[in-house]
């Protein structure tokens, strides 16, 4: 069964990275993400335990990144929440007689699952939160321009990418 924990954790980190000057609480994040603040508090606690975020209690408190987004890899995030980046292996009840083919098939599938997980983490270690933040802000900038009624041609001819943002060419 697929889980949304990894994507939700990345969403939290992206909001903290992109809006670092704004205060964020589990309640404010949960409202934006349409989830329960208690669920986010557990994820934030795991991230704080790994040193990726800092939390402050009380008035003016909240959560913020503890590291530069460039220093956080998506593989680290997967490790923190112990995300399995693959699939689940089905289980077969014990048989009264040895079934060597079934046992061998399950062992081979499990080995493939572990190899896929390792390959996924290696690839995710190449991508930083800053990389993902740039992709996110570019998409948000593009969506704003389209919502403002700009055509594809106007966007292509009037904007350039600079530090992960779309900026007017004349600036």
Given as residue ranges, the uncertain stretches (5+ residues, pLDDT < 50) are none
CATH superfamily of the domain at 5-83: Winged helix-like DNA-binding domain superfamily/Winged helix DNA-binding domain
Tally of individual helices: 7
What's the overall geometry?
extended
Would you kindly provide a written description of the structure presented here, covering whatever features stand out?
By secondary structure, this protein is mostly helical. It has seven helices and four strands, in the order αααββααααββ. The longest helix has 25 residues, at 100-124. The mean pLDDT is 91. The chain is extended. The strands form two sheets. A two-stranded antiparallel sheet has the order 1-2. Helices cover 54% and strands 9% of the residues.
Write the layout of secondary structure elements.
Layout lengths: L4 H14 L7 H8 L3 H13 L3 E4 L5 E4 L8 H7 L19 H25 L4 H19 L4 H7 E4 L2 E4 L3
Helix pairs in contact: 1-6, 2-3, 4-5
What are the main properties of this structure?
171 residues; two-stranded antiparallel sheet; 9% strand; single chain; 54% helix; mainly alpha; two-stranded antiparallel ribbon; Arc Repressor Mutant, subunit A; extended
